[in-house]
Amino acid sequence: MNKSILFIIFVAALLNSGCQKYLDKKPDKQLVVPSTLKDVQALYDQNNIMNEKGSIIGEASADNYYLPEDAYNALADEHFKELYTWGGDIVRGASNNEWSRLYDVVYQANIGLETLNNVSKNSQNIDDWDNLEGSGLFFRSYAYQQALFNWSLAYDSLTAEQDLGIPLRGNSNFNEVSRRASVQQSYQQIIDDLKIALRLLPIHPSFVTRPSKAATYGLLARIYLTMREYKKAGAYADSCIKIFEGNLLDYNLIDSSRTYPITAFNMEVIFYDVATTAGSLNSTMAKVDSNLYATYRENDLRRILFFKPNNDGTVSFRGSYTGKSSYFIGIALDEIYLIRSECQARLGNVDQAMEDLNALLLKRYKSGTFEELTASNKQEAITYILTERRKELLLRDLRWMDIKRLNKEGADISLQRVIGEQHFMLNAGSSGFALPLPIDVVTLTGMQQNPK
Length: 452
Fold this sequence. Notes:
This protein is mainly alpha-helical. The chain has a single domain (34-253, 327-445), classed as Serine Threonine Protein Phosphatase 5, Tetratricopeptide repeat (Alpha Horseshoe), CATH 1.25.40. Helix content is 48%, strand content 7%. It has 20 helices and ten strands. The strands form five sheets. It has a two-stranded antiparallel ribbon with strand order 1-5. It has a two-stranded antiparallel ribbon with strand order 2-3. The protein has a two-stranded antiparallel sheet with strand order 4-8. Helix 10 (126-151) runs antiparallel to helix 11 (183-200) and helix 12 runs antiparallel to helix 13 (230-244). The termini are far apart. Mean pLDDT is 91; it is low at 1-31.
């Protein structure tokens, strides 16, 4: 058995058992430490860690769905009940929670980056070496982004230096104490790493589970949109679209008779990432918000392709870009069009903003039925775009951060849950929009918990 395979087996066992077991018993490093570029590529191609560890707890806390009372009561895991009602402490085992799964990705990325430090770069391997460095930086940044969206408040330039961010792990040393950086430091680390990755990665990946220049442009566009730096977000979205232009799916060509109509790895997918499904979002339990469903017009093919009618008159979601029940939380071209459109509108370029929005919607309506939307001013355009953004990017784990950033723009979005006679509220501006860290993580590390 070669060293690369041994290493992959070891890492899988390590990450499933938690860091404490690792600290208790060190394995034979001669067998497990990767040493070649092929080892690093094998490490990054371990899709069950690098592309299937995503978190969707932000979406589980957002307002795109609801649980009937019986479904809520049937949740066996209190963790998901707390997420659904924005409750107090999130109780999960230290090695079996969304936090640890995201930091599994960070750990794996750091192992790869450290290995590269011990491999000489030369004229024969420079392309592979650069690609792997860029890949490590991208994978780590993607995990950081998800963590930041879940467990920190929205970026605000006035408070970002003080607001609690996430731990920035620059190496694989488990013995190094984790401390939370500020929101400002966290965003800056992601941006700095992605700008380096841009210089190193190929324009297109050999497969969309691997990072690329296009994916990096897309992630930078998402990050800057979240920071409300619209000129930069729009520019990076534009660079991404220029690579993938012409790749919007025509929903008229999708077979709606399939259980999950939209196939995985379709032409819109720029980077493929899948969430570990939250129990409350199980399609047999979660019902799409009825007011949201009503916004899809009769000739809007998303009304058919995204939803499954239930016998009780409710609807469930089936429109994931995974081709199955799991949730796609990667980067796709539709999101990038919507980012560029929103940024154009916020910068006052209304015609260009509506051109992007109409180009997307043309592919979403039954052929010959779509009538282009027009906006007479900036605010009208923004309203159209944000409405379609929510409808198009449903259950991709973007809504939670959208609510937070839009509230910084004065949207005043508060959330409400009703379970029987109980009413739960999360008011706009509440500190509850930074989800609580798992108790075990705080207990084991001494890390600062988010205020309630």
